[in-house]
Amino acid sequence: MNDFFDNDDDIYDGNQHTPLRKDAFKLSTDEKVQKIEGLFSEIMETLGLDMTDDSLKDSPKRVAKMYVNEIFGGLLPENKPGISTFKNQYKYRQMLVEKDITVYSFCEHHFLPIIGKAHVAYISNGKVIGLSKINRIVDYYAKRPQVQERLTMQIVGAMKEALGTKDVACIIDARHLCVNCRGIKDTASSTITAELSGIFRTNPITRQEFLHYVGSHAKLD
């Protein structure tokens, strides 16, 4: 499993890797579920909850399975989507944009949800990718404790590797419940991050075309 650290496309430009220990995969999936179940039971008991109550007694197991297999499933290398590409036989050389991809992630600071939309674009240099694979890339990297900046960069890094091109862009617009429901409790704000590579960064016309397609009038330099 250590190959995950050597070959996974998290390692990109040295600054977008998910912070994992070297022994992150020492435990099996079932062992992780069992351990988290016990620890979450302790949290609930510490909060004073009656763990013999029918509504609560199975919550630790439900939470543990959800953490490992669902909302943090992007931490399991075996869940990394296989990205098949195809030859661009129809010679389409313009921008392809996949808009409004649903983002469900969790803030790594408070473990509260990040909910929003991702807009991903690329220009083919000979390869094209199945549209659903773009959604799967977003979903895989979102299913981790995250910061939005890193998530945006990881999506672009994975697309660049799969397509063999630098001409990739991603914008994410998301609400952070750690801002909305605690602390300042600002329920109206959202956060926008952008990662622009290749011609999306160097060519202002291409950049503005992308922003026009995704409905953003922001100036990204």
UniProtKB/TrEMBL annotation:
> What Gene Ontology terms describe what this protein does at the molecular function level?
GTP binding; GTP cyclohydrolase I activity; zinc ion binding
Q: Which InterPro entries match?
A: GTP-CH-I_C/QueF (IPR043133), GTP-CH-I_N (IPR043134), GTP_CycHdrlase_I (IPR001474), GTP_CycHdrlase_I_CS (IPR018234), GTP_CycHdrlase_I_dom (IPR020602)
A Pfam entry, by short name: GTP_cyclohydroI
Record: residues binding Zn(2+): 107, 110, 178
Q: Which GO terms describe its biological process?
A: one-carbon metabolic process; tetrahydrobiopterin biosynthetic process; tetrahydrofolate biosynthetic process
Top enzyme category: hydrolase
State the family named in the UniProt similarity comment for this chain: Belongs to the GTP cyclohydrolase I family.
Query: Subunit structure, per the record?
Result: Homopolymer.
What name appears for this protein in its UniProt entry?
Answer: GTP cyclohydrolase 1
Give the classification, highest ranks: Bacteria, Pseudomonadati, Bacteroidota, Flavobacteriia, Flavobacteriales
The gene is folE
